[in-house]
């Protein structure tokens, strides 16, 4: 498309700051003949305090019309835990059927990793985004009494598992290593685990060129720190994917570099791109936030919309910028954004 | 007690090999006036293949009479995933109400860690052992069809959460740092998360000397690799505890050193001690298994039975042995066991 109609949800804490830099880089990378139109949505803690709303139907309806959504971060200590997460962020993922939560992990040269030996890390986690323990199917009875019972139900469907597993196989088939690892806990969660494992084994027949592997989630965390180079594409459920991708971010230079896309591959609804990090209220307004994760999320956004060349330009710019970073002279959020914008334009 | 009546479940793979060394060290450390009696139970893959049984009522009944249980490892690729885990290991944990799954993590000097900078790690995870997603409350319908739905239910009770939280506060109060971190995911699993968070906040009033902290499980994995020295006592649910303790083992020198106790603090049923690692069928019979995790589990066993001095002797012996280990000249399972036995006896 020769135009991009983008919804922007800056959100809370450092969200607006990193989104500003993401948009700066996006404007800089787009050729003159691609028109960029952005519409900001006031959603998050401020809106909730002002009106009690998290994501009203009217906003959801308007959001549907855009080509894609760029989101900064959601969450503030002044709002009870879960209100904005369930009422806004997860509501968007579910309403727009973002069943592929795509989270690439790569250890860029010259970036800090807590791992000795700097392993060669380059994998992508395909996290299911619309099922599992995230469905919001739980409750409690006798709440607040010594007889309270609280439940959380993980719901997994063949429909939901098969589509994300197919997506993961497609991605694995397109990568040089062509390897897909399923992560679950099928020795304990036998019913959901059986569905996931059987689905992978069945679809694997259609992808003889892709090798497959299975790991329990606990064992997977071990390999993330001892042998992360063994991974290529990982497919896993919503909760395991949440846990593993924070760990992946930590070993590849930190949450300041981790990008993600909440993707609706069919294009029925707009996909949504966001840094993996949260709103970090403790550093909001200080200029310390690293906008790189948001900038890399913009690259995923461009790729999703078919602008592959521009996506690569951004990723190359980030690579080059990181290679020249000097930890001793930190830059502000805006300075990093400026540097990246200059690189992609140049 | 001046005698120990121990049930031993060697189990599968390297289980029998590491248990033999654990018993060797146990015999060596006990003073002459403490009588040790052991009874071996044939449970695991062999038994299941031979009889179809995982843990018959008769065995469960006999096991009840012992002072404690030492378990090697359970699991074999020839048995469908989940059969031995649910039918034997978890059945024991649930039947004997092992609600405190105690997993200490310490980076001993001279041991390999994948982390650069060798942080000072010394924390203990108190993992709930009888609730959550491990209750086996799940199922599937239209199994094997494109319309399959598979569920797993996490059940959490005030009764179950409070008792393990109390245990964790007691442990935190007895340690120098006196810090307790609750790990959960209360922004998504709001019902279970609310129960856990409220329970910790309430019991905290009774322990003003203990400082408390809360982390989402995804964020906790980040700190495990970037700042593990921040943890003292961690309390968490069954599944999060499973995941975090494998990661903890990985950063503190590997699963070959990670000990655990499945504890029934009331003493209603025997507690069970086991290495965190699995049966590792790939190295069974090669003499490559490190029995140290089992030996450290024996130390936890002795401490639980009131033999604190002997527990410390074992832990000091392991420390001293690790300090002198030379990665270039690996020893066999039995050689490590011999060396540790010699140290504790000497
Ligand atoms: C904020 C929270 C609901 C969210 C999640 O758990 O998915 C976040 O951790 C993430 O990974 O995007
Ligand atoms: C074997 C498996 C059932 C077990 C668990 O998940 O508890 C193991 O991983 C552990 O941590 O002891």
UniProtKB/TrEMBL annotation, chains A, B:
Residue positions binding substrate: 93, 103, 127, 218
Cofactor(s) needed for function: Mn(2+); Mg(2+)
Record-annotated Isopropylmalate dehydrogenase-like domain positions: 5-340
EC identifiers of the protein: 1.1.1.85
Binding residues annotated for Mg(2+), in chain numbering: 218, 242, 246
PANTHER family: D-MALATE DEHYDROGENASE [DECARBOXYLATING] (PTHR43275)
Family in the record: Belongs to the isocitrate and isopropylmalate dehydrogenases family. LeuB type 2 subfamily.
Summary of the function given for this chain in its UniProt record: Catalyzes the oxidation of 3-carboxy-2-hydroxy-4-methylpentanoate (3-isopropylmalate) to 3-carboxy-4-methyl-2-oxopentanoate. The product decarboxylates to 4-methyl-2 oxopentanoate.
Subunit structure as annotated in this protein's UniProt entry: Homodimer.
Protein name per its UniProtKB record: 3-isopropylmalate dehydrogenase
Source species: Streptomyces litchfieldiae
């Amino acid at each position: 498309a020769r135009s991009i109609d983008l919804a922007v949800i800056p959100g809370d804490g450092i969200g607006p700051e990193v989104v500003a830099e993401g948009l700066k880089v996006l404007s800089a990378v787009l050729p003159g003949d691609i028109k960029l139109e952005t519409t900001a949505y006031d959603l998050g803690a401020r809106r909730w305090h002002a009106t009690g709303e998290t994501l009203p139907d009217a906003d959801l309806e308007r959001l549907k019309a855009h080509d894609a959504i760029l989101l900064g971060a959601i969450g503030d200590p002044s709002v009870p835990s879960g209100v904005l997460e369930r009422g806004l962020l997860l509501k968007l993922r579910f309403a727009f059927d973002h069943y592929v939560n795509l989270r690439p992990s790569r250890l860029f040269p010259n970036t800090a990793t807590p791992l000795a030996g700097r392993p060669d890390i380059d994998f992508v986690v395909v996290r299911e985004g619309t099922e599992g323990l995230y469905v919001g199917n739980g409750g409690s009875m006798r709440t607040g009494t010594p007889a309270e019972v609280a439940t959380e139900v993980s719901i997994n469907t063949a429909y939901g598992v098969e589509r994300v597993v197919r997506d993961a196989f497609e991605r694995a088939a397109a990568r040089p290593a062509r390897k897909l690892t399923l992560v679950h806990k099928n020795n304990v969660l036998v019913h959901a685990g059986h569905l996931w494992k059987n689905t992978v084994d069945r679809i694997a027949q259609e992808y003889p060129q892709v090798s497959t592997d299975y790991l329990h989630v606990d064992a997977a965390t071990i390999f993330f720190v001892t042998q992360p180079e063994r991974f290529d594409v990982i497919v896993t459920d919503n909760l395991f994917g949440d846990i593993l991708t924070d760990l992946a971010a930590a070993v590849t230079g930190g949450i300041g570099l981790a990008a993600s896309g909440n993707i609706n591959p069919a294009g029925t609804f707009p996909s949504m791109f966001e840094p993996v990090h949260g709103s970090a209220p403790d550093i909001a307004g200080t200029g310390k936030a690293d906008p790189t994760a948001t900038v890399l999320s913009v690259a995923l956004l461009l790729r999703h919309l078919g602008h592959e060349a521009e996506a690569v330009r951004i990723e190359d710019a980030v690579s080059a910028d990181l290679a020249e970073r000097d930890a001793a002279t930190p830059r502000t959020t805006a300075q990093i954004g400026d540097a990246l914008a200059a690189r992609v334009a140049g």
